[in-house]
Amino acid sequence: MHTARLRKLLRDINDENASKRRAAAEGLSQGDERAIYPLIRALKDNNFGVQDAAMRSLMEIKGEATVYMLLPLLRENSFLRNTAIMIIREVGRIAVPLLHVLLDDRDDDIRKFALDLIHDIQYCKYPEKLVQMLVEDPNANVRAAAAKTIGMLQYDKATPQLIKALSDEEWVCFSALEALACIKNDSAMDAIIELLDNPSETIRYAAIDAIGKFSSEKAVGALTGHITKADGFEKFSTIKSLARMGSVPSIPGVKEALLEMLKGDDWEDTSVALNGLVALKAEDAIYHMIDIAGSFDLSEPVSEDRFIAIKKAVQSYGCSEHLIALLNDDSIKYRGKVTVIEIVGDLKCKKSVPPLIALLKSDFRDVRRTSIKSLGQIESDEAKECLIEAISDDDSHVRKTAVTALGKIGEMAAFEPLMRMLHNENYNDVIEEFIIALMNINAAAFLSRIGEYNEDIQKLAARYLPRCNSEITC
Amino acid sequence: MLNLSLAEGTFKDIRDYIYDNSGIYIADSKKYLIENRLSRILQEKNLQSFEDYFRLIKFSSNGNELTRLFDAVTTNETYFFREPQQLTVFSDGILSKLSGQNRILKKLKIWSAACSSGEEPYTLSMILFEKGISSDKFEIYASDLSEGVLASAKRAVYNSYSVRNVPEPYMKKYFSCNGQSYALNNAVKNTVKFMKVNLIDNSNMSSLRCMDIIFCRNVLIYFDTKSKQKVVSNLYDSLNPGGYLFIGQSESLHNVTRALRPCVINKVIMYQKV
Amino acid sequence: MKIMIVDDCQTTRKLLGHYLKSRGYTVVFAENGLDAIEKLGTDTVNLVMTDLNMPYMDGMELTRTLRADPNLSDIPILMVTTENDEEEREKAYSNGVNGYLVKPVTGDAIAQNIKNIIKQFFTQGGMQNG
């Protein structure tokens, strides 16, 4: 940055006007080390916009000097402390060597902050120091943070010390279990399995969770054995862990537990349950899956992904009777029904044709439209007649879908009806579909009668000429 | 019909291009979405590959191809009176707070950022009229990235889906019905100024300053954290001190900014520039 | 009864979550104060259990913000933090928390504190510091 500009920004950051201070703080993001101290002072500005801009700029400048000058803020009030932590975290790996000295600080909280930062930055060249803290630190929160960080770093050499930490206070044991589950060193398995008989429910729960992450035969065996000894919440957790490993024993209670997981609030659980229920071939779960799919607001990107996951799961059942029965089930949400219609079409379920034909009379345009599309995909003779009838539906979207479907099938019987209806069609996009369909069914015949239509339609038809393999010239 | 497939490399090129030009980030899992939505465009233009399409975007001299691309990748599901709890707080809570301040001469300035086909800014206008605030006392600005939707917004004619949440008294007073379409009357239409704005680029926001209230609902979901921070920073700069930002009820600023302070009225959250 | 756990550490959320779920409570989570406020916009809880040190909005600010809104001010708040500092404790109570526990803390201690807070809350008729 040019010196003159830097000087101006350093002046403006002390201006009376908050907008000017904020703009200066923003501008200093391109500054060098001379900008650091003024920006740190600006973190204490009474205007939130200035504080925020200063924080972001320090995050951009990064560097050792920034971290060095931020360390004293860790001893200040909680707001400044947390801001300093956010910035140091963003700075990343360069900060880690400078955090080493904090690990011996007299203040428990400072030691813990340092460990948490190393955990978030996911980098450390002195893991032995962390192991020493795990074993020797007088404060349980610090020992727990050390365990957590060791696990994040996947520092395998610490496995023996982590196993020892399983006998520490509950808070520390919990973190040690999580760490061992991250590292996945098989030598820890026996010690963890022993914890399945621990008097503390929390420890047993953490052990079940940890074992579930090992995904080995020994793990599956241990948990399968434990189901019979557990009940309630613990049994549920055991089944969950097994389902995560892709192992779903067909014993009583498992299906019910998975259904509960499926309908719960946690998407991760639902996702695990989806796989488990499919593996169990539990067809009565299809209703619930569709119910969940039907409740999503698809304008949210997150929901769209989840919707697709559920649809895939239901599809993997194939043309199940349960699925087809849902076409006649009025208790499903309308979006759920549309999903079922889509799926039977994709799967080309011939048995779904009669209920789909019945749905062509639905009040909901989307239901009619999707039914037509699916009937088009299934290509049964029964369906063809209904499709031909649908090209004269009141709703343009329905007409369009029917025309497209007929074109795709290349249904000869539809040729004349299409030729007739094209005369009455007003919407351009539907007209286009008529033309494409007619070209696909019998381009030669269509083009030979193109004179029956107005100029606009003829021009539109001409656009599609290169697409067909016809040798007809206009 | 053509069955083109989108190669990984081309997807990344298109994705990066969209990101650099608008801040909208398309995750890997959405590749199928791009494939589907762009296929139509390819067919229309008689293009043989996505690579050809990408070249067209990059080298087209006007912005039209690019805006068409943006259009295709964002879902524009919107309707009148969306998220009514927020609108109630706007009308009963915020408006009285702001009009209480010393603003006898100053007009109330409201910005509907990412207005799509206009349902939101027109909703705000109707609410203001119902509160007895005449059109000379407020200004509503509405912006979007896509010229297509802006054109549609200026026409102000809607289908039954868009108006499905409009209370009956408003329908009678502000709309005229023609078969399946509903046209807004001129009194409402004329209160909104539409303009094309790219939210990550503050250089195109110079006329959008000193706003009392900004609505930026259900669009931040398209941005990754870094772009969101840029957008919200720009919105902050556009607000008056004491002004409010409304985002979608299912959206969050919690890893985005400290500059705007959350304030809660009737469990609805707004963010204030204090 | 539904409780919101606010803590930026995932392991802590998991542990505290388990303590509560295994005692029959329904639990929802938030990563920091701002996240909590945003979620309380659409969710109703019977108690908020919050850490102190969190990015974007810490426990103190969360407490002040909840107490400032008439619709949220009657939710009891239990602070659960590593800060074993008398000054911080006093500050927390003056901001409006109903209980203050220092980590590490056992499931039983948490459950007992929650029971006491809820009881106190309803017998004293709403928001008054314990």
Description of the structure:
The complex is a heterotrimer of chains A (474), B (274) and C (130). Chain A has 474 residues and is mostly helical. Chain A is 68% helix and 0% strand. The longest helix of chain A is centred in the C-terminal third of the chain and has 21 residues, at 428-448. By secondary structure, chain B is of the alpha/beta class. In chain B, the strands form two sheets. Chain B has a seven-stranded mixed sheet with strand order 6-2-1-7-8-10-9. A three-stranded antiparallel sheet of chain B has the order 3-5-4. In chain B, α1 (8-22) packs parallel to α3. Chain C is built from five helices and five strands, in the order βαβαβαβαβα. Chain C has a five-stranded parallel sheet, with helices on both faces. The chains are: A mainly alpha (474), B alpha/beta (274), C alpha/beta (130). The A-C interface holds A 78-79, 81-83, 85-86, 108-109, 112-113, 116, 140-141, 144, 148, 169-172, 174-175, 178, 201-202, 205-206, 233, 265 and C 9, 11, 14-15, 18-19, 21-22, 28, 52-56, 58-61, 82-84, 103-107.
Quick structural summary:
The complex is a heterotrimer of chains A (474), B (274) and C (130). Chain A contains 29 helices and no strands. Chain A has helices at residues 3-12, 18-27, 36-42, 48-61, 63-70, 78-91, 96-99, 108-121, 127-136, 140-153, 159-165, 170-183, 189-194, 201-214, 217-227, 232-244, 254-263, 267-279, 286-294, 301-315, 321-325, 334-346, 353-359, 365-378, 381-390, 396-409, 415-424, 428-448, 455-463.
